[in-house]
Amino acid sequence: MMATITVVLSSTVVNVALPDIMGVFGIGQDQVQWMSTGFLAAMTGSMLLNAWLNEAIGVRATFVASLALFSAASVAGGLAPNEDVLTFARVGQGIAAGIVQPLAMIMIFRVFPNERGRAMGIYGIAVVLAPALGPTLGGWLTDNLSWRWVFYMGLPTSVAGMLLGSVFLPGRLGNGKPMRFDFFGLLLLTLFLVVSLYAVANGQRAGWDSNLIVGLSSLGVLLMLAFIVWELKNAQPLVNLAVFSVSRYAAATLVALIFGAGIFGSSYLVPLFVQTVQGYTPTLAGELLIPGGLILGLVFPIAGRLTDRFPAYIMVGTGLFVFGLSNMLMYDVNADTGFWRMALLVLLGRVGLGVMMPALNAGALSVLPPGMLAQGTGTINFVRQLGGAFGVSLLAATTEVRFAFHADTLAVTQTAGNGTTLELVSRVAGLDSSWGVPVTQASAGALNYLGQMVAAQAQSQAYGDGFALVAIVFWVGILPAMWMRPAR
Question: Which sequence ranges are marked TM in the entry (predicted)?
């Protein structure tokens, strides 16, 4: 739980500091999103190292070494002189987080063979505390000290995890020779992630139909196909694709992909929206997430117990619908949307997440034979993180594309024939003139103000489109959730 608090805190708390980081280093959203995308992509790839490291050097050594790497990367992020070092520090945190995170599921399923839903619910408190309290503390640190202190927040729990792990965790779980690791498969997967995410992140800037983006996208598809072919032929694959022969497990992993894209993507959008459009401080943006985190803390243990009593597909489908509904209700949010309306919409979404998370993991793994349990655990976590990495990148790209679309659409209407526009420009210019601004400068200032209003409205509508996209994806996810239903 200490390790989970550490990695979940680091994956969410940096989002409240992104506007400040953008201002300090003079970068845009297309560049700053790499701090979230790079973390998630690194976590995705390194998760597949977990099983091999557990066999090669033991659970205890893997756990302690990963948290030590995380601590070192956190210090490097806090001291980063530029955005490149900061991004590499986030990648380092992601590598450590990916290795250590699957250990929780492995230990729970080994220690609790009969009450896994309940155990998952109790363990989920750690997952809840970090996103509930972390962004608020991170916002306060950003406002009162510096965004750099956000990177140091995970150090206390990381050190506590290393101490507890050294005492309580076992060494190697088996006595046999460690299996041969599929380094070539990991290389193919890493290249696929880097190439594909780079293409998505730079599509708007370079042009979606440019030779660079089309070429990188095609290369990403080829790398993914090569990875699948290699894994099918390899005797000891990085990802055992045989787990997908269990149809109910395959359906659960598809839901996990959608779940990861939606949860990480929306967690990225909400803090950016309230700070860039509504003008919230980082502290206020963090406080906005407190009610949702607290309700998740109440729902998670209850949902864990219900998972032991009700079919997983019902719990998962209900959670998908509720979270999608909360995002669809955010479609028309704007600069005037009140604090408590936003907080309640986030709260509603957290209820949906709390309902589905224990059921998704327990429902997926319970249908696998014991021999596939370790591979199944790693694979579903890998798929969820893969969805998160692409979800953040795709939503960032979507908001950029929709911002340009809405800005062009609104700009076309600002003509000399638009009486409302002329009245606004005249009134603003009149106010400037009454304060002693020369007429020529007053007119230019009024037009600049009009441009700012158009940009603000276009940005608000672009974020609304992003929230609507998350809702649609989650509702589509109800279909594979129904495939988790056992055969009659």
Answer: 35-53, 60-79, 91-112, 119-137, 149-169, 181-200, 212-230, 242-264, 284-303, 310-330, 342-368, 462-483
CB-based contacts of 407, cutoff 8 Å, min separation 6: 454, 455, 458
Chain centre to alpha carbon of residue 431: 45
Separation CA 99–CA 140 (nearest Å):
30
Could you give the CA distance from residue 319 to residue 313 in angstroms, rounded to a whole number? 10
d(CA 83, CA 63): 29
Angstrom distances, CA of residue 337 to CA of 89, 192, 280, 342, 347: 35, 40, 12, 7, 16
What mean pLDDT is predicted for residues 99-127? 74
- Determine the topology of domain 2-181+238-405+459-482 in CATH: Growth Hormone; Chain: A; (1.20.1250)
339-364 burial string, b = 16+ CB within 10 Å, else e? eeebbbbbbbbbbbbbbbbbbbbbbb
Measured CA to CA, the distance from residue 227 to residue 242 in angstroms comes to: 15
Q: How far is CA 355 from each of CA 134, 319, 343, 352, 482, rounded to the nearest angstrom?
A: 22, 5, 19, 5, 16
In one-letter notation, the amino acid at residue 65 is: A
Q: Do the beta carbons of residue 333 and residue 342 sit within 8 Å?
A: yes
Cβ(149)–Cβ(204) below 8 Å? no
Kindly state the tokens that stand for 69.
């790497």
Domain ranges of the chain: 2-181+238-405+459-482, 182-237, 406-457
Confidence tier at 488 by pLDDT (50, 70, 90): low
* Radius of gyration (C-alpha) of the chain in whole angstroms: 24
Q: Give the tokens for residue 192.
A: 């696929």
Question: Rounded distance, CA 50 to CA 54, Å?
Answer: 6
Instruction: Work out whether the CA dihedral 311, 314, 318, 321 comes out positive or negative.
Output: positive
- 470 burial class (0-12, 13-18, 19+ CB within 10 angstroms)? buried
pLDDT at 478: 86
Q: Report pLDDT for 77.
A: 85
45 vs 378: CA distance, rounded Å: 11
- What's the one-letter identity of residue 334? N
- 65: tokens are 């070494």
Return the closest-CA partner of residue 250 out of 481, 487, 488. 481
Alpha carbon of residue 52 to chain centroid: 26
Q: Give the span between the Cα atoms of 319 and 349, in whole angstroms.
A: 8
Average pLDDT over residues 81-91: 85
Which tokens sit at 174? 């088996």
Do you know the residue count of the chain? Answer: 488
Q: Is the pLDDT of residue 174 over 70?
A: no
pLDDT at residue 176 in the model: 59
In this structure, what token pair is assigned to residue 415?
């003509």
Evaluate the CA torsion angle 123, 127, 133, 138 in order and state its sign.
Answer: positive
Model-level pTM greater than 0.85?
no
